[in-house]
Write a structure and sequence with these properties.
Elements: E1 2-8, H1 33-43, E2 48-53, H2 57-71, E3 74-79, H3 88-92, H4 94-97, E4 103-107, E5 110-112, H5 116-126, E6 130-136, E7 144-148, E8 155-160, E9 169-177, H6 192-202, E10 206-210, E11 215-217, H7 221-238, E12 253-255, E13 260-261, E14 266-267, E15 271-273, E16 278-279, E17 284-290, E18 295-296, E19 301-307, E20 312-313, E21 318-320, E22 323-325, E23 330-331, E24 336-338, E25 341-342, E26 346-348, E27 357-358, E28 364-365, H8 374-383, H9 390-398, E29 406-408, E30 415-419, E31 424-429, E32 432-438, E33 452-454, H10 479-490, H11 496-507, E34 512-519, H12 542-547, E35 554-561, E36 566-574, H13 583-597, E37 610-612, E38 630-637, H14 642-649, E39 655-660, E40 672-677, H15 680-690, E41 693-695, E42 700-706, H16 711-721, H17 723-755, H18 771-780, E43 787-791, H19 798-806, E44 812-816, H20 825-836, H21 842-855, H22 859-863, H23 867-886, E45 901-905, H24 907-913, H25 917-936, E46 941-946, H26 951-961, E47 967-971, H27 977-988, H28 996-1006, H29 1010-1021, H30 1026-1044, H31 1054-1057, H32 1066-1079, E48 1082-1083, ...
Helix pairs in contact: 17-23, 18-19, 20-23, 23-25, 24-25, 27-29, 30-35, 32-35, 32-36, 36-37
Length: about 1250
């Protein structure tokens, strides 16, 4: 056999441990997780394990290579170049798995008892395509729940995070499949839980087995520790010799022999200590895992913590609340760590009082070359420096060298926020910076004095394959930053004034100088994420811009800024040219050229203009930062007055307002100014030209950022401050929206749904030619006058019949309640609305109510409506649409016309399955009352399809309460035998020979039941003979009857599993089965009075349980088996002597108890008569007659009891005979086995003797040769 283990990807949930090792080889109980699974697979004979690997396959292979020889198992690798989900790896490993035998599939982070042998036996017993292991949980609402048949394990459906209770069994991540499942899966990203399993369950090919022992998904730290406790307690029961014992050990504790535990330690419970660890004296460990090479200092107290490899914990340290330390972490003395997640290679020098991820500015940079300036960057990160500006921070974050990129923020896979002590925060998503914010403090703060620091390490901590492969995420620094990068890093330890002086000195030595200009009106300005205008104007601009510059000006690069509607142009010019002696002269000439040419881009109303860039531009690709008309200006240094700001910024655009963000009590006054421009172009030009510009006359630098409009927050503020006004306004708005917009829309969509003809998938069911089809088609073409109830057992083809009637017919609605199980009223109303075209549905109101409730606590009540109100509203609107259509009905009622037809399929079964019976009754009352009203008014035909034999009686009660009415009931039976034979021949095709005898067997056992015929044809196509297929089907039916009818199943054992109590007695069912097996059809009254003794409730419950059904024979209500297959199963059960006798024993005992009860009553009455006549010499004649009658009754009861006792004796003798026969057979088999074993031993002895003789002969020959 083979097995596939889904190893997965990065293992982000178990970080920071998985930053050093792939998750499957992280030690769990001093053994790699995946080795627990491989060893369990070896024990049941699995000879090859395939690992579906996506992350670090070489490391996995190197680690597991020694275990292949040690365990005697082959380990193969299926490498996913891209993640394929949980099903795609099976298709990728098709060639390795498809050897004709079942194979196991399991997730790599599952820890349990691994009952693979029981799972394999159960899988082979049911014959399905797949089996999954399920486990019981206390809180099923957090998981996807598996709903299945208790008696057989067949899975019915999967319910994701149910809000109402549907079960408490969830997928345990351990499966076994037949190779045929590979035909269902394509080699693409696919979820086996959400796509493959539901399809298998729909085909009745998926089963489940409950795991009895412990189970845990240890893929995240909290569950890792919980799973460790479960595992150690399991070892305590099964292998206690593996656990540590002695002084200071409490509960189950696992300690590697190479570790040292000093005296005075108190360890346990649920503690694992790996190899080469040192636990110094006075240490207390509880619910903790200590990995290899770790040292814990004296008197430390550690609880609920995972300590990574080669870490060191100081003295008097306290750690708790699921703290996780990565590899090579050093914690100083006397610290408190509360729920901290500490990345590898860190030194912790300050306490962590609240749960947090220790990341700060420790960026995981893959330094491929440790050369300048990379080394200086790492030294800055490790040792601390002055605070960087936002521009410098982002520049270092985005790129430090062309060979150095940020590979990951290794704590969260999708999003994370990086916050430093300087109040700078960076928001990452999928490896791309999404949002960046920085607040400059009044004084510089050394980062080395913050809560964490790092040790020197030159190896790369974590690598990801090219996060920036996609063009959208690529970041290429502008050309002017490449020349300034060395100076930018040096600026960490120098002032800004020194940098500017140094720059001027360098530039003064050459006549070739650089400059940058900003050109606007090149693209439409992007104002939000939903603004897609720029996508339509990706026109080339390079030639046009080059034509605007003089020939002796060299353009180095054009940095497009599509969000801001312009571009930076970096150019060089020769200052020795008299025309360009100063940059002002050059800019004057450029402005003249731009004004004369008047170049227009993207059909803009204004021509492009240029302005000189004085500062250092902030070139970024942050997704959530968009231009606005307002700038927030931060002063690094002295502040500028409003007058100075106005004179500085007015040349770039008209200014609406200048104010400071808020007054502060500091001596320096406010440090931020808000400047609002009239047009967005002015704010953009100001920021791009003056950002990060140093003004020596003011001794300050300006940092500019766009001030985003927070409209949603303002709306939330209004709700919070004025709920009494806003809630009624919203209610009025919702009412007006419903009346003016929703109701007309809903009426339109219902009318559209009615007017569209019905189409169904083409199925091979032309063999079902029923006379009821023409009757119904004729009935529906004339005015409605009654409700139609079509009742038939499941699988008899009633849905196919109504589909043929509705095919290509307009004015038709099909409400399919069987399409998905509606466990609550909200699901039903949503499905009902969709089927009739009621849109927008009430789910939109629920979503809107959730939004309001998120804003204000009382919002939900304002928009929530009751189930009764929703149903009445939907049905009322549907009735209005039907009434409008009724105006177009023909005047002559005898004229054929396609009158509206509403078909409701599976309604009564859905009502019975609904959790809330109160709401189920509301829905049933609303729908049936509407159906009666609609048919009585003549607006539409209403048809109910049901497999419930008593559904018609429910509607009759409603009609009686309404003063009478008509209901037309059509009882559908099975098709004729000749049609069934034609269907089988058509399904199996001419290549499968079928004899006349086979056809007779099919008709006798299956009749014309469509479902059973379809199952038989599938088995025949698969290669089974008719005899074998029928035998298997009948055996399966017998098992279902024994489980559902008699409760003879472990899953229905009330004493063990808490199964439901039968609503009838076993003797009642057995006597009914015997009668039906003998006569096929039994009178309802005969069963009611002779078998059930007038207990109509039990008989009706039995008929409603899908074991029996009604059928009218010669205008008499008869009871028969639910299907011809069940009838054949009844006969097989009666012919099973052992079962027949056993059930007869129960029946006779039950009848004897009934007779004894009756006899006791008669005897009590005789005693009363004796008391009445005890004082009299003569017995009155009337009392004498009564006494004689009672004595005759006693004789009758005693005779019946004796008769049944004799039958019980015969049955007991027969059962004893059967037991003896079984013992004899077992003894015979045992003797045969012993005999065969003895014969094998004799053969082995003879072979050994022959070998010895041959060896002796060879020795003699050798001696003779030596003598010669």
């Amino acid at each position: 056999m083979k097995a596939l283990i889904l190893v997965g990807g990065f293992g982000t949930r178990l970080r920071p441990l998985t930053l050093s090792k792939p998750k499957p080889i992280v030690e769990f109980a001093n053994k790699a997780m995946i080795l627990h699974q491989i060893e369990a697979l070896c024990k049941i004979g699995v000879n090859e394990v395939v690992l579906a690997v996506n992350y670090r396959p070489q490391l996995m292979s190197q680690y597991l290579e020694p275990y292949e020889k040690k365990l005697g198992i082959k380990i193969s690798y299926s490498h996913e170049t891209v993640p394929l989900g949980t099903a795609g790896p099976l298709a990728l490993a098709r060639e390795l798995l498809n050897d004709g035998e079942p194979f196991f599939v399991l997730n790599s982070d599952i820890i349990c008892d691994f009952p693979f042998a029981d799972l394999l036996a159960f899988h082979k017993s049911h014959g399905g395509e797949g089996t999954i292991m399920v486990t019981k949980v206390e809180e099923p609402s957090k998981y996807g729940v598996v709903v299945y048949k208790e008696e057989s394990g067949q899975i019915l459906k999967f319910v994701e995070k149910p809000q109402v209770y549907v079960g408490n069994k969830i997928n345990a991540g351990v499966y076994i499949f037949n190779p045929t499942i590979l035909d269902r899966i394509q080699p693409k990203p696919t979820s086996i839980e959400k796509e493959i399993f539901p399809a298998m369950a729909a085909d009745s090919q998926l089963f489940c087995m409950q795991l009895e022992g412990f189970w845990m998904d240890v893929g995240q730290p909290k569950d890792f520790l919980s799973g460790m406790g479960l595992y150690l307690n399991s070892l305590k029961t099964k292998q206690p010799e593996l656990l540590a014992t002695g002084n200071g050990i409490i509960g189950p504790v696992l300690i590697d022999p190479s570790s040292v535990i000093e005296p005075g330690c108190l360890i346990g419970p649920n503690v694992t200590i790996g190899p080469n660890c040192v636990i110094q004296e006075g240490t207390r460990l509880v619910n903790t895992t200590v990995l290899e090479g770790t040292t814990i200092g004296k008197n430390s107290w550690i609880k609920s913590t995972i300590i990574g490899w080669n870490s060191s914990i100081g003295k008097w340290v306290r750690m708790e609340n699921t703290s996780v330390l990565g590899e090579d972490v050093h914690v100083s003395d006397e610290l408190y760590i509360n729920g901290g997640k500490i990345l590898p290679h860190k030194s912790i020098t300050s306490s962590i009082p609240e749960p947090e991820i220790i990341i700060l500015v420790y960026l995981y940079i893959n330094c491929l070359e440790m050369a300048s300036p990379s080394s200086r960057l790492l030294n800055f990160i490790r040792n601390g420096s002055k605070l960087l500006s936002p521009t410098s921070q982002l520049s270092i974050l985005k790129n430090n060298n062309t060979k150095n990129i940020i590979t990951s923020i290794p704590t969260v896979t999708s999003t994370t926020t990086l916050t430093s002590s300087s109040s700078s925060s960076i928001f990452f998503k999928n490896g791309n910076i999404q949002y960046f914010r920085s607040k400059i403090p009044t004084t510089s703060k050394n980062i080395a004095n913050s809560s964490t620091s790092t040790t020197t390490s030159t190896k790369p901590f974590f690598e990801l394959p090219k996060l920036f492969e996609k063009k959208y995420y690529s970041y290429i620094p502008p050309t002017w930053e490449e020349k300034d990068r060395e100076r930018q890093l040096n600026s960490i330890t120098s002032t800004r004034e020194e940098e500017d002086n140094d720059e001027s000195n360098k530039m003064g030595n050459s006549s070739i100088k650089d400059a940058i200009v900003w050109v606007n009106h090149l693209y439409p300005i992007k104002v939000s994420r939903l603004d897609f205008r720029s996508l339509f104007f990706h026109i080339p601009i390079t030639k046009k811009l080059n034509s605007l510059f003089p020939n002796d000006v060299k353009i180095l690069s054009i940095e497009k800024r599509i969000k801001e509607g312009g571009a930076y142009i970096h150019f060089q010019y020769d200052s020795s040219n008299p025309e360009y002696q100063s940059i002002e002269l050059l800019m004057s000439k450029l402005k003249e050229i731009f004004a004369q040419e008047k170049k227009h881009f993207h059909f803009a109303s204004r021509p492009a203009k240029c302005k000189l860039v004085y500062g250092r531009p902030f070139v970024e690709d942050i997704d959530y930062r968009f231009p606005s008309t307002t700038l927030k200006i931060t002063f690094k240094g002295s502040e500028m007055s409003p007058d100075d700001l106005f004179r500085l910024m007015r040349p770039y655009g008209h200014i609406r307002d200048i104010h400071y963000s808020s007054p502060t009590p500091s001596k320096d006054g406010p440090r931020q100014a808000i400047v609002s421009f009239k047009r967005m172009e002015g704010a953009i030009a100001t920021r791009n030209c003056l950002h990060n510009k140093y003004f020596p006359e003011f001794n300050t630098s300006l940092y500019m950022d766009y001030e985003q409009l927070m409209r949603i927050n303002k709306l939330k503020e209004q709700f919070s401050k004025h709920p009494k006004i806003m809630i009624p306004l919203l209610g009025i708005l919702a009412t007006l929206l419903t009346l003016l917009l929703f109701n007309p829309l809903r009426e339109y969509f219902i009318n559209k749904k009615l007017s569209s003809p019905c189409y169904f998938e083409q199925e091979e069911d032309d063999w079902q030619e029923r006379p009821e089809q023409k009757v119904l088609q004729t009935h529906f073409n004339f005015p409605p006058n009654s409700i139609v109830m079509i009742s038939a057992p499941k699988g008899s083809g009633k849905s196919s019949l109504i589909d043929k009637v509705l095919e290509d017919r307009i004015n038709t609605l099909l409400i399919d309640c069987n399409q998905e199980v509606n466990n609550n009223d909200e699901e039903f109303i949503e499905s009902f609305s969709k089927d009739i075209g009621f849109f927008p549905s009430y789910s939109l109101y629920s979503s809107f109510g959730s939004v309001v409730d998120a804003i204000i606590p009382t919002g939900k009540g304002a928009f929530h409506s009751t189930t009764n109100y929703q149903m009445q509203t939907i049905l009322k609107l549907l009735d209005e649409v039907l009434a409008k259509k009724a105006k177009n009905f023909p005047v002559d009622p005898h004229q054929p016309y396609e009158y509206p037809l509403i078909v409701i399929d599976g309604f009564f079964g859905m009502i019975q399955a609904m959790e809330s019976k109160e709401k189920a009754n509301i829905i049933m009352d609303s729908v049936i009352q509407w159906a009666i009203t609609s048919t009585q008014r003549g607006h539409a035909h209403v048809v109910f399809l049901s497999s419930d034999s008593f559904a018609g009686d429910v509607i009759k009660k409603y009609l009686d309460n309404r003063g009478g009415g008509q209901i037309s009931t059509i009882q559908l039976g099975d098709v004729q035998p000749s049609m069934a034979i034609n269907y089988i021949k058509r399904r199996v095709g001419p290549n499968t020979p079928i004899t006349q005898h086979d056809m007779e067997l099919v008709v006798d056992n299956l009749g014309g039941r469509y479902y059973d015929l379809n199952v038989l044809s599938q088995r025949m196509i698969a290669g089974d003979t008719v005899d074998r297929a029928l035998s298997n089907m009948i055996s399966k039916a017998v098992s279902e009857i024994r489980a559902e009818g008699f409760g003879l199943s472990k899953r229905n054992d009330e004493s063990k599993m808490g199964g439901t109590k039968l609503k009838w007695s076993r003797p009642q069912l057995w006597e009914t089965i015997k009668k039906i097996a003998e006569h096929d059809f039994v009178s309802y009254d005969d069963l009611l009075f002779n078998v059930f003794l007038g207990d109509e409730t039990s008989l009706n419950n039995l008929i409603g349980s899908n074991l029996l059904r009604f059928q009218n024979v010669d205008n008499e209500r008869k009871v028969t088996a639910y299907s011809p297959l069940y009838c054949s199963a009844f006969k097989q059960m009666v012919n099973d002597l052992e079962f027949n006798v056993g059930m007869d024993v129960l029946v006779q005992k039950a009848r004897i108890e009934e007779e004894l009860s009756k006899l006791s009553k008669v005897e009590d009455e005789l005693l009363k008569i004796k008391t009445l006549t005890s004082k009299s010499w003569f017995e009155p004649l009337s009392i004498k007659k009564r006494r004689l009658l009672l004595e005759d009754k006693i004789k009758d009861h005693v005779a019946k009891i004796e008769h049944r006792e004799n039958i019980l004796k015969k049955h007991s003798l027969f059962q004893k005979f059967l037991r003896e026969e079984q013992m004899i057979q077992m003894e015979t088999i045992k003797k045969q086995r012993e005999q065969s074993k003895f014969e094998r031993q004799q053969q082995q002895l003879q072979q050994q003797q022959q070998l010895q003789q041959q060896l002796q002969q060879q020795l003699q020959q050798q001696q003779q040769q030596q003598q010669i």
